[in-house]
Specification:
disordered N terminus; alpha/beta; 9 strands; seven-stranded mixed beta sheet; 380 residues; Spore Coat Polysaccharide Biosynthesis Protein SpsA, Chain A; globular; two-stranded antiparallel ribbon
Length: 380
């Protein structure tokens, strides 16, 4: 297709039109996609047997941690109520309740410790004995970058330019989630390939971004990020340093020296996110180390991503990143974290970091997903 004589905007319009028709091209593979399935006209690359880990979910350790947490919460709460008991002149009934709570809080503590110990002996030792340092650099280090956006007209243009300036970025895709401002226009003017995802919700937007990125066969790596300038392309080189050791490199914002002063992550959100990461790590004990389960910024090998896509439900909303990590770990995908710089958002936050109340609600939904079911709160 000859597009050399066209203007910049016409070029991208022509490319988008070509993508919609799924033409035969050496760079773009014809793909038949819907929201819950992934089929390709070309057989997806199968990872080598030695490349992937086995799926081991340490349920005993996870629920043991829950029992221990309940016991400690009951004990500490009861201790804090001690001064109130004294102020009430130590009534016999209050004293009796106080003693019973302290005594019986030991039961879930013992049960939880036994459950964690069982998984440590039965599963974690076996998992750690099978560990190895993988060193499998991708043959093709070029990237397709997929940015999610929702009413980000103030930032999306600069975000696209930032990523396009990196020498290993072949293209930048922007997925607008029904933006009502000039997000799509600004992204296209900056050189991005732009799509609009009509199903509202963060999970639907991310799912569409990954599906579109996988259409391109001249790259075997997909970088997922946001278009609000909280993350920068300078960290791509960090991700590439880690990708030989994993299938997915997950960015971590939980490094104090790499957080700008005015980011939307409050102290409460910072440690709440760290806590959620450690709970998910407890579910896959011995297989991964996690400190941040809420970041969009991640680098994925397309071979692993193609196998993972049919397992991901786009109806899962703001907790989609934690859901993505949990689902990947269950499937034996190797995940490693990479510290990334985190900057103030350009424009108003519209996700789970708006305030501590919304962050608490999101955190509880994440914990419910980790302990019970990720589809308990679908975004329809």
């Amino acid at each position: 297709m000859e597009i050399a004589h066209l203007s910049q905007m016409e070029k991208w319009a022509a490319i988008n039109s070509a993508l919609d028709r799924n033409p035969s091209s050496p760079n773009v593979n014809a793909v038949n996609l819907d929201e819950n399935s992934f089929t390709s006209s070309k057989e997806p690359q199968k990872p080598s047997p030695t490349r992937r880990g086995s799926s081991t979910t340490t349920w005993f350790a996870l629920y043991g941690f829950l029992f221990i947490s309940i016991a400690l919460f009951a004990y500490v709460t009861n201790v804090l109520l001690g001064p109130l008991r004294l102020l009430l002149l130590d009534p016999p009934l209050f004293l009796r309740i106080n003693e019973l709570v302290v005594w019986y809080s030991g039961i879930p503590l013992v049960i939880g410790t036994a459950l964690v110990g069982w998984d440590l002996i039965r599963n974690v030792t076996r998992i750690r004995d099978a560990k190895f340092v993988r060193n499998d650099p991708p043959e093709n280090k070029y990237l397709t970058v997929a940015l999610t956006a929702y009413n980000d007209e103030r930032s999306i243009g600069d975000a696209v330019k930032d990523f396009r300036a990196h020498p290993l970025v072949r293209r930048v895709i922007v997925i607008s989630n029904n933006s009502t401002d000039r997000t799509m226009e600004m992204a296209e003017q900056s050189g991005a390939i732009v799509f609009n995802e009509t199903r509202q919700g963060y999970g639907a937007c991310v799912h569409r971004a990954l599906r579109e990125a996988l259409k391109f066969e001249d790259t075997e790596l997909t970088m997922l990020c946001e278009g609000d300038l909280t993350f920068r392309a300078a960290d791509i080189d960090k991700f590439l340093a880690y990708i030989p050791h994993a299938d997915v490199v997950n960015g971590s914002r939980i490094v104090e020296q790499l957080q700008d002063r005015d980011t939307q992550l409050s102290l409460y959100m910072h440690y709440g996110n760290l806590f959620a990461g450690k709970v998910l790590e407890m579910k896959h004990l011995g297989a991964v180390s996690l400190t941040d389960v809420g970041t969009t910024y991640k680098l994925c090998r397309n071979a692993a991503l193609r196998e993972l896509m049919p397992l991901l439900d786009p109806r899962v909303n703001l907790e989609f990143n934690a859901y993505f990590l949990d689902t990947a770990l269950k499937s034996g995908v190797r995940i490693i974290e990479c510290p990334v710089a985190f900057y103030p958002r350009i424009g108003a936050s519209k996700g789970g970091n708006v305030n501590n109340r919304i962050a608490t609600r999101l955190g509880l939904r994440m914990l419910f997903g980790i302990f019970v079911d990720w589809k308990g709160f679908p975004h329809d």
